[in-house]
Amino acid sequence: MEYLIGLGIKGESHGACCGPGRWLGGGPSLESINPATGTRLGGVRAASAEDCEAVVAEAVAAFRAWREVPAPERGQCVRAIGEELRARKDLLGTLVAAECGKIKAEGDGEVQEMIDIADFAVGQSRMLYGKSMHSERPRHRMYEQWHPLGPVAVITAFNFPVAVWAWNAFIAAVAGDTVIWKPSEKTPLCAVAVQHICNRVMERLGHPGVFGLAIPAERALAEALVDDPRLPLVSFTGSSGVGRRVGERVARRFGRSLLECSGNNAVIVDGTADLDLATRAIVFGAIGTAGQRCTSTRRVIVHRSRLAELSGRLVSAYAEVRIGDPMDAGVLMGPLIDRGAVEAFLQAVARVRELGGEILCGGRTIERPGHFVEPTLARSENQWDVVQRETFGPLLHLIPFDTLEEAIELNNGVPQGLSSALFCNDLARAERFLSAAGSDCGIANVNIGTSGAEIGGAFGGEKETGGGREAGSDAWKAYMRRQTTTVNWGGELPLAQGIRFELGAPRAD
Ligand code: UN1
Asked: I need a labelling partner for 273 at 20 to 30 A (CA). Which of 29, 136, 294, 492 fits?
């Protein structure tokens, strides 16, 4: 496992880090397990309550200095981290594949996503624009400016163990915030590797403490971060169930939360669709990352006239998918993350059968070490409970429709609202899907699948997906506080709305 040494991981790692490069780990041991083999990759000593406090205190102290560093200079720090990531893309991509089980090409792709958002953030560091307005009062200047918000907690999931942190951390850093990362305890080594890179760069550039890491083993310590009034923003990626609790707790203390929760993403295959394109996009969307992306395709809503042909094509495509060690070339699907994920997948398959659905292919576990299941196609109904919730695995429901309006209703007829796609070769139908009466999701694509979004757009979704927007576009605003400023440079004190309020004026009576 030379890649671990190349990433600075030697022996047992420590689960909390605050600058300058101070590694702490007074909590219990956490094992990092390769889900493809069940073997141990390494161990991490989790952060204790005292360690978490040290990380938060450091982020609070570092914020005082960082907020006054000019934003373009903050951007240069992110640029330097991006350069280090470029140099280590292969090593880190390998660790991502080994620790979370996605195939090496997707592991590398995830590191590329970090590099892309670093580049984006560097540009953004010179574009933290505020508007100016014309005041209604003479000799007054009115404008808004964006200030750094404070130390930000970034809680990430196992399935994107490095990229989602980067979306948040790089934008937050150029915005002038400091960052406390609470990664999934299922992928601690990825976080430790990235933290080593941050430490090296930020110490060299004289800004230690901007990026901190806390990997606690107990839920109570993660909750303490969520409840901490010193952290004005909590960015959370994970299930809607946990996201709801995070949102409630943060709201209780008037904090802000940025929630990126469950998806239940559908591809609509219209009567006019190119089935070659649609099939390829569906297979990548449903099987990529073994169906463990929040953007994974979970439902295919297909025009009844194409149902037989599309399901035939999908069944043949599924039979061709090579499943195995994510590090082997040619493998397209790796394992699920752990035993619990396999259980949830099997329960969902059993529930489809119980409700009268047909399993067209797959549905079983694969007998080999690790947590492998078969990619599975089911003929299901949209309103079934098992279709209404997100099963984090390669289970795809096929649902027929007759009219486009019905297809849009089915697309929108789930509690989640992250990603959606329409395959179609008819302009008016495509525009209908993208219109205000179309998809209700945060992402709506035409002739592109539901997963694999670029970082340039704002990423996130509606309803139980949580409403947050991360990564590109103007997502940076979530990491800053807006201040409206009015300067009176005349010698008078005119009041807005024409109000007269004069001391010593003669009384009307
Ligand atoms: C996630 O699954 O949490 O759009 C993020 C995509 C990736 C990001 C997924 N760029 O599929």
From this structure: 294
